[in-house]
Design a protein that fits this description.
Elements (H helix, E strand, L loop, with lengths): L7 E7 L3 E7 L3 E5 L2 E4 H9 L11 H22 L6 H15 L3 H10 L3 H22 L7 H10 L5 E2 L2 E2 L2 H31 L2 E3 L6
Antiparallel strand pairs: 1-2, 3-4, 3-7, 5-6
Length: 211
């Protein structure tokens, strides 16, 4: 998140005299190019469904890694100043969030829990749209899989092409298989790009969650 929060508060406690006791209300998990990744940021992206955590993964670690990658991408985007996303598209995504998690009291409860305002949530959505547009522009039409690649994917992933217990014939499944291969190639290219960004950017992990 772009908004920085107060990280520690100290309260005065009277127990056989006065002493200071630190009360942690947030924690810096990492720094990326001078920007902070906070534990509250991680909580927010999970609660709002921006990051899906695989069942076998540590939720804090997984979401923190995704936020580090996101910060790396935003640093790169800011170098080129891509156009602002359409306001109507931001509204559509905000509406989708509202439908997914529930509006009214539930939305207010998550906003209070994560320390976000509605405007800060809109800024997060806006940056997501900027990232999506940049990745599509940079990697969207780059990869053209061969016919052998498409056939191999179809044969190696029969479950993806099974309908009502039967594997769909290749002729009918070819377009879906082709899109899946293109997505794989694009994801691999994005991973390589992120690795390069991380090598060029100072990233410091300050907190490792318990295993």
């Amino acid at each position: 998140m772009n908004v920085r929060k107060i990280l520690l508060s100290v309260r005065l406690v009277a127990l056989c005299g006065f002493r200071l006791q630190a009360e942690i209300i947030d924690r810096i998990l990492a720094t990326v190019g001078g920007g902070l990744v906070l534990q509250s940021d991680v909580r927010a992206v999970v609660r709002f469904g921006f990051v899906e955590v695989p069942a076998e993964r540590n939720a804090l670690q997984w979401a923190m890694d995704r936020l580090i990658e996101r910060r790396l991408m935003l640093i790169e985007l800011d170098r080129y100043g891509p156009p602002e996303p359409d306001r109507a598209e931001i509204d559509r995504r905000m509406h989708a969030i509202d439908e997914r998690i529930g509006s009214g009291e539930r939305m207010e409860a998550i906003l209070r829990e994560t320390g976000l305002s509605v405007e800060q949530l809109r800024l997060y959505v806006r940056d997501d749209l900027r990232i999506d547009a940049y990745i599509q522009q940079r990697f969207g039409a780059t990869f053209q899989p061969t016919e052998d690649d498409i056939v191999a994917y179809y044969r190696n992933h029969p479950a993806e092409f099974t309908r009502d217990g039967n594997v769909v014939p290749f002729a009918q499944a070819r377009d879906d298989a082709r899109r899946a291969v293109m997505a794989q190639l694009r994801d691999a290219a994005v991973r390589e790009w992120l690795s390069g960004l991380r090598r060029r950017t100072e990233v410091e992990i300050l907190y490792l969650p318990p295993r």
